Each structure stands twice: as C-alpha cells, then as structure tokens.
Amino acid sequence: MTKEMAKSLPISKRMVYNSYLRVIAKNGGAGIDKQSIDMFNENLSGNLYKIWNRMTSGSYFPPPVRTVFIPKKQGGKRPLGIPTVSDRIAQGVVKDFLEPSLEATFHSSSFGYRPGKSAHDAIKQCQDNCIKYAWVIDVDIKGFFDNISHDIMLQLLQQHTPEKWVMLYAERWLKAGVEQEDGSIVARTQGTPQGGVASPLFANIYLHHAFDKWMDEVNPQNPFERYADDIVIHCSSKEESEQLLEKLKTRMQQYELELHPDKTKTVYCKNYQRNDKYDNNSFTFLSYSFQPRTIKDKFGRKNCLLVFNAAISSQAKTSLRTKLREILLYRWSDKSLEWFAEKLNPKIRGWVNYYMRFNRYEAYDVFYYLNKRIRKWVANKYKIRGSRNVKSKYQLIQASNPEMFYHWKLGIKA
Hints:
Blueprint: H1 3-8, H2 13-26, H3 37-41, H4 44-57, E1 66-71, E2 77-82, H5 85-103, H6 119-132, E3 135-140, H7 144-147, H8 150-158, H9 164-175, E4 178-179, E5 185-186, H10 199-218, E6 224-227, E7 230-235, H11 238-254, E8 265-268, E9 283-285, E10 288-295, E11 305-312, H12 314-327, H13 337-355, H14 364-381, H15 387-400, H16 406-409
Antiparallel strand pairs: 1-2, 3-7, 3-8, 4-5, 6-7, 9-10, 10-11
C-alpha cells in the first residue's frame, strides 16, 4: 500500500467502535482463534486500537475463517463461515462505509440483509404478486455463495466505490483461507463464506448486477422478489415463464453461476379463478409454503374458496419439532418445567413472530406438538398414568402459572 493511499484512508476510531457495537449486539461465536466476545472485551481498548492501526496502515490481513456445518431444513448440511471477532469488526467498518451509498442504488424488490427491509416484506409482496400473476419461476442458484467469481465481484464493486482501501480489503476477505472438515486451511479461489459480515453485501452487489438490473432492463413486465439468492419471478403465462427461464440460465452463466436443475421450476398459482392443470402447484420461499388452500367464503362457509397464499412450510414445521425434541427431553425429570420454559421461550417468541405473520393457525401444529411434549414430561415427572389424569395435572400447572410458556400467553394451551 502506498503512502499516498495510507494518508487518504478515511478510517476513524469511531468507525471501528461503531462496528464493534454492532458485532457485540449479535453476540456471535468465536472464530478460528477461539477468542469469544468476552475474551475480546478483556483488553477492549487495546484490541480495537490494533484493528484501527492495522486498517489505517493497510497492514490488516484477515485470518482464516472457521467452518461449522449446520443442518438444512431440506436435509443435508451447509457450511457456515465464522470469522474471528476482530475480523467481524474490520469487515463491519467496510460494510458500514459502503452501505449508505449502495442503499440508494439497490432494487426495491431486493429484501435480504438491507436496513428497513425484512423477510416478511418479501413474503407479503410475493403473496400479492401471486394474486396478480398466475405463474411463478422458483429460482435456485446452485451453491451461490460458494461460486461467486472473485474477479467479477471486484469488477462490480469497483463500479460503486473509488476507494482503493475498500478494494484492497474486499479482495483480502474474498481470498482469506477457509478451514476444512479435517482442520486444514485452504486458500479460497472463488466464493464468499456465509457468516461473514461483508458477505451479504457482496452477494447483493453481485446479484444486483447479475439479476436485478437485468430484470429491470430486459424483463420489466415480470415483477420479482429477491432475498439474497432466494428468488421468485412472476409471469403471466406458462410460455412466458419457460422462455424467461431459458434466458435466465444464459444470464447466470455470464456471471459464472448455474441454476439448480432440480430445484429451479415453474409453478402454477392455482386458485378458484384458475382451473388449468399443472404438476407444480406450490413453492417454498423464506420457509413459507405458497400453495392452494381452502378458506371460508363471504357467507362463512368453510372450505369453499380456493386461494393461493403463504403459511409456514412443512419443512419448517419439521425443523422446529426437531429443535423442541432436542431441548424438551421428557425423561429429564430432574429439571423443572420452569427451566425448560426459560430455555424455550426466546425460541418460541421468535417462531411466533416469524411464522405466525401469515395464516397464523397453520403454525399452531408446532405449539400443539410442544404441549404434547410437556404432557409427556408431566406424566414422567409425576409418575402419572392415564391420559385423563395427565391432562388434569397439565391443566392444573397451566392454571397456576398461565404465562410460564410464551405460547400459553397467546391461548395455545390444548
């Protein structure tokens, strides 16, 4: 790095400290150096000064990224890259610097990892567009985060900033080593790790050019929703969706990306006004299943009107039940029910807030299942036999502490 560049670096101690505040608010895990946030805080001023000093001099080099494998809702596992606490702060400095100007550029139908936008906003827009348009392309980019081209990424980033220090650190983060399953470190030649602070911003820049702008310029008649690499495109006819899908495959190839051949599909949004037959009548977007459902008509008659809308997906239900089984083990009679409630309530509150926004009653199955687990625990704890006796004891516990579990407060007690 030249002296001229170093003199022009607009990195202040306040920028580093503001990034630190955002990192500790998310309370992530330790990186490859095994340093937790609490350990980092033991020498807070010294650690922050070290980041600032190295970044301003151009001598900051990111350490390798720790890799953990987390289960996918659809089965299998995906790698999650966890940078060190220091590196998350350093990445945040660049992200905070770039984000305001990029926000003015990004597309209104791009919802992922953007201030003031949420997954619920994307789901609501998608549901509204499914009413207007009969066909959908459910887009799945094969291994998107793992296949981002570094060269293309840096070329695109350069269009958004003249700052050489931003380009310098962006390139270093893209090429930082990644821990493998056997513990070895391998240099990265493509992709950006999911879990990095800067990775979502890189992803949005990449797909802003590869997809969003292209849709606006070439296919303005087709609205879409994009949340990171999760994309839904709306079409007026089957023919239009098939033609657009072929064009999209070519477009992705230009950015060294590939559509997943099995997971990318056209979907017919069947409802009471659309009577055509088609094999695919549902898709999943942001853990919500969009599919035909029957509702009451204006006279209050049940199951009379077929609509196409969103509710918690079956994969999400399965995932939540698995998490409940892992925490509420009914054979753990040495624990109190209050102990389980303390562990579960933050999760339950999050699930309620996310999965009960649309067709809330579809999510009740998960909480009925939780109540069933609680009754099993009650039967084991108090050595009660017979479903009637177990139910009586369960109701007595609820009556004495009706707000013990968050979902009980909402009246989901059966």
